[in-house]
Amino acid sequence: MAEFRLGDVRLRQQVEPGAAAVTFANVELRRGTGRLEAELRFGGSTVGVNFVDVEKKQEQRARNRKTSSSRGQKRSRHFQ
Is the CB of residue 21 less than 8 Å from the CB of residue 78? Predict the structure, then answer.
């Protein structure tokens, strides 16, 4: 189970065994500062994540248009 918390937003999502990344799609966040927390839970253990990448939807769309010609390059936008 992956868990994401920021302000009053709390999301949980199942993680497939062996998955290298998790994406929480269509998340609505309030403008302003906040404390982002993310963790993974499995087999009774809870661990932190290596990194979290958060993007505005409009920035992500623009970046996708820019990189659509370079599909061979992989870029992670998820937490692991």
Answer: yes
